[in-house]
Amino acid sequence: MPLPFFVTRPDALPGRPDPKHDRNAACASCAACSGGDRFVFESEVLFQSGQATMTPEGLAALDPLAAAIVELENTIPKEINWALQVDGHTDSRGISSAQFPSNWELSSARATSVVKYLISRGVPPKRLVAAGYGEFQPIDDGTSDEALRRNRRIELKLTNR
Fold first, then answer.
1. Of 17, 21, 66, 154, which residue is most buried, by most CB within 10 angstroms?
2. Which domains can be identified in the chain, with CATH numbers?
3. Spatial contact of 141 and 73, defined as CB atoms under 8 Å apart
């Protein structure tokens, strides 16, 4: 269930540009454009193909979001027990390497990388959850390169605990 406080607060990220409209932030979608409750980053923005180590560009893309979440924590009423869920998703192309035997491992490792980076930027660990969905929650059922690209993503969503 989305966190009502976040959804109903369009000013929750004061002074922060809308990431969808700031291609330097490299965000594929934004809270306002996806129903108000999540941020979506294309995997290519954060990671090289088949890898779970974030690129320097990916780290920089997460910095404004991390700062906003740290600020947001101070404005959410204490009685609301919330978490930022970081979901890793892959496309339907299989992967099989020693490090990542399947897309489950890759998507989980990517979500965990994002969580660890957010912690390093001051987001409290008790507010973070990492989950990997592999290829099993596509947003585009197509098989074109564009459809596969859309499915490779990291979603960040504020939720109730």
1. 154
2. 4-8+25-77+86-160 (3.30.1330.60)
3. no
Distance of CA 112 to the CA centre of its chain: 11
Q: How confident is the model at residue 29 (pLDDT cuts 50, 70, 90)?
A: very low
Structure token digits, residue 161: 């605990």
CA separation for the pair 73, 83 (Å, rounded): 10
Give me the amino acid identity at 120: S
Instruction: For residue 129, give the amino acid letter.
Output: V
Q: What is the band of 1 on the pLDDT scale with cuts at 50, 70, 90?
A: very low
Q: Where are the alpha helices (DSSP H) in 52-143?
A: 56-73, 103-120
Confidence tier at 114 by pLDDT (50, 70, 90)? very high
Write down the pTM of the prediction: 0.80
Residue 7 · residue 37 · CB < 8 Å: yes
- Cβ-based neighbours of 144, under 8 Å, separated by 6 or more: none
Q: What is the pLDDT of residue 35?
A: 46
